[in-house]
Amino acid sequence: MKMKMKMKIKGKNMQRRCFSGVCVAGYEDSGGNEILQLLPPPTLQAKETQGLCPERDFKVECGAFSNRPVYGLKHVPDTSLLVTSGPPDSSLRVWQVSAEDSDVIKPVGAIAAENDAGQPWAKIATISAKAPWVLHGSRLDSVRVTEVESRKNVYTAASRTSEELSDVAFLDRNTALLCCAEGQLSLADVRQAQAPLEAASVPWAPCGERWRMGVAAQGSDPGSRPVARVSSGGHLSLTDVRKTSESLAWVKCRFPRPSSGAEFLRVSWAPALQGCLAVSGFDGTVHVYDTQRWDSSGREAEPIFIHKGHALGGADSGDGPSLVTTHAWHPQKPRTVLSAASDGSLHVWEWVRP
Amino acid sequence: MPEIKVTPLGAGQDVGRSCILVSIAGKNVMLDCGMHMGYNDDRRFPDFSYITQNGRLTDFLDCVIISHFHLDHCGALPYFSEMVGYDGPIYMTHPTKAICPILLEDYRKITVDKKGETNFFTSQMIKDCMKKVVAVHLHQTVQVDEELEIKAYYAGHVLGAAMFQIKVGCESVVYTGDYNMTPDRHLGAAWIDKCRPDLLITESTYATTIRDSKRCRERDFLKKVHETVERGGKVLIPVFALGRAQELCILLETFWERMNLKAPIYFSTGLTEKANHYYKLFITWTNQKIRKTFVQRNMFEFKHIKAFDRAFADNPGPMVVFATPGMLHAGQSLQIFRKWAGNEKNMVIMPGYCVQGTVGHKILSGQRKLEMEGRQILEVKMQVEYMSFSAHADAKGIMQLIRQAEPRNVLLVHGEAKKMEFLKQKIEQEFHVNCYMPANGETTTIFTNPSIPVDISLGLLKRETATGLLPDSKKPKLMHGTLMMKDNSFRLVSPEQALKELGLTEHQLRFTCRVHIQDPRKEHETVLRVYNHLKGVLKDYSVQHLPDGSITVESILIQATAHSEDQGTKVLLVSWTYQDEELGSFLTSLLKKGLPQSTA
Would you kindly state where each structural domain of chain B is located, as residue ranges? Predict the structure, then answer.
């Protein structure tokens, strides 16, 4: 099922929230960006795939205006809060969604520090452990964990180096995983304030490539949760989170080198399909791979499915070929994926097992 | 301040009964008169008691406008005009006028015959109601009376649907009804010119919807049909002759051709004749493509679609059949349904809303055992699908329309104001217009700034330009004249001209003021002192010393006389006309300050 979103904002960042809403946001530098929470049609909410349904449209449940472009957008679990990040610095904005009595997403504050000015935008991850927390930072030495509601600082990283980060994630309530733009992984124990971090680079990583990371959802047993890292040169590495110096798998994917570097590159694991991951951000397609037969030989991997909808594009593709800016998996339907592209389109699709 | 008042009628917040009252410059217009399909009691009709508690509504309304033939926009019309009482004009487009009574009659039949209701409008009432209808053409300005005029614009959506502009003097309102901004296979897209109405009224549901792409919807429909036909099943599509049937036929024909499918597609002859008849009558309401096709051949002459014969329903093998009526409540579609319902390989696709009480409504609600005439139970094993192909605008569409029309204010009906703050802000920010969202029964007042054209007389214009100052587009020029209002025209003329036309004589108003100055010298010396003083201070003005001993400053006269009792005091008489009030007051204050001590 394909859906086209008719908005003239340039592109989207997305976060699948519970299974009852999708948040999208714009990233225009010139301001006037919107953050929207969309209510998906009943067919997407139900578990079974229904036939034709009268209601097939998305509804705008609520929205907000952001004068900053939104590059990072995350929902804080167990709350009705959203956290966003974006240029011109590495500070965060906190928003409150109050869908019941109003359709406005209200800005409720900012999380910022003095050393945020002039830094690249912060990468964020959220968890609701003792309290709703956000893990954020743009460089290895500026990683922090902040309590979202009280804005209290819970953890600050003590790192001697200041590599730029490309992704951050919570492995569990005590452990954070950080991925640098050049590929190194670091683990941090957030209980030990200011403990040093250890870094492990991607084995056999060629120089000059930029890397992004994808971690499976929280709660799964670490043994079956390899960390995926994808580079702008098309290399994909799977690593066991407990032994980050070794490699579980190492393959080459066939996609064009993105002109935007690793900016929009994204790799994510399917929540309901063993060993399946999706990669996007290099052109107008989304690739789905089955990693179960992969090894570390570095040979080329064939995707089990390529979604080409965004590339075959819509009516208003006057700005050149569209780029898939983000994607997300449906939390329950195993083979359903949502993807958004730079032409403002939003697709919800699934592939059929042959 | 002139104002426009808008009240959406009826209780409840749900969409499904459009009826909006607009009050503009003393004229009252009712926009649409729809029926709510979900209720069986009085709640299905709008609440007309808002207009008046008792009696007929003819005196309270100047006209009624119906946007298109869907029942949620015209379903309450016979009830309103014949049972509540209204004898004034009802405006709608030609196709709407032709098709409305058919739908109303069908609906009446279902309600009275099937559901056994008694307090409902009759066939005669429908006929009487339609006699009050005045049909309009697109873009035709219709004078309802001397001051009120209306104009219809193409809205897409269904055959004959229109958006209406209501204008009184220079105040105007545009009501969109239901519209669609993207053309489809047999209708064009809505279009309006930059008419800049004071107010644009439209549905709030559009603004919060992000529509699924048509291509996607169609592909799913085709997939379902294809799957059924591939497994040897039969597909029944009950349709109303002029709804989406044409659209779906074109869609299937193209698909069959592309996929080289062999299964037959039929539609019932009743359907073809009716549809052909109406499309022929209203060919200008369809899109370019249809019009071109129509010239070459009959619109329903498809390669893969043939006329149906009731005997075909018993043929083995796969097929697709379009049959009327659309809600499976009677006639051919029901007959076919009964034959095919027992086989799970078959499928029925309901293309639209079904009224309660019809078989269509029952099976869509999930009922699988239906009681037919003679207590027979029909078990429904065939697949039941519901798809809505109605063409509606959405969030993007409404923004496009606002951009086209450039209204000064926007009003969204059928929404909850507090739940639409973001939307309101979005419209206000994007277009810098006010956005209103009244609840049903609530009146919104919009203040307008009508411009009033005034003719200026040539004489006055010439006089003002003769002052020598060049016109500056950045600075407003202050002019003095007299405004003459006669009948409905306004003229700005010079006061002399006004007096002449009115037969009045001009009066001169002169002020005189006495200023006492201490000066023991002779009068003529005082005068000289005053003259020199004024000449020095008022360099930009014409100060003259006349031979008779008086001083003039522009047209102001100053004379000096000795005080009758005190020789040391001189009395300056300052006299000026009303027009020189300012200068006169200034001179007086100046002189009151006294003369400088230096000698003349």
Answer: 1-208+389-445, 212-384, 452-467+474-500, 508-591
Q: What is the pLDDT of residue B232?
A: 93
Alpha carbon of B546 to those of A159, B511, B537, B553, B558: distances in Å? 98, 20, 18, 11, 10
- Helix, strand, or coil (residue A8): coil
* Structural domain boundaries enclosing A324: 208-354
Peptide bond preceding A120: is omega within 30 degrees of 0, i.e. cis?
no
Distance (Å, whole) CA A275 – CA A277: 7
Please report where in the chains the tokens 């799977």 appear, as a residue.
A238
Q: Among residues A146, A144, A248, which one has the least CA distance to residue A197?
A: A144
Pairing status of strand B305-307 against strand B265-267? parallel
Chain A residues whose C-beta sits inside 8 Å of any chain B C-beta: 1-8, 32, 34, 38, 41, 51-54, 56-60, 62-65, 101-105, 346
Q: Cβ distance B576 to B583 under 8 Å?
A: yes
- Phi, psi values for residue B153, rounded to 5°: -120, 150
Q: What is the pLDDT of residue B15?
A: 53
In DSSP terms, which residues pair with B143 in a beta bridge? B149
Q: How far is CA A113 from the centre of its chain?
A: 24
Could you tell me the pTM of the whole model? 0.76
CB B583 within 8 A of CB B543: no
Q: Backbone phi, then psi, for B416, in 5-degree steps? A: -100, 120
Q: Is B221 on the interface with A (CB under 8 A)?
A: yes
CATH code of residue A267: 2.130.10.10
Q: CB contacts < 8 Å between A and B, how many?
A: 88
Q: What was the ipTM of the complex prediction?
A: 0.74
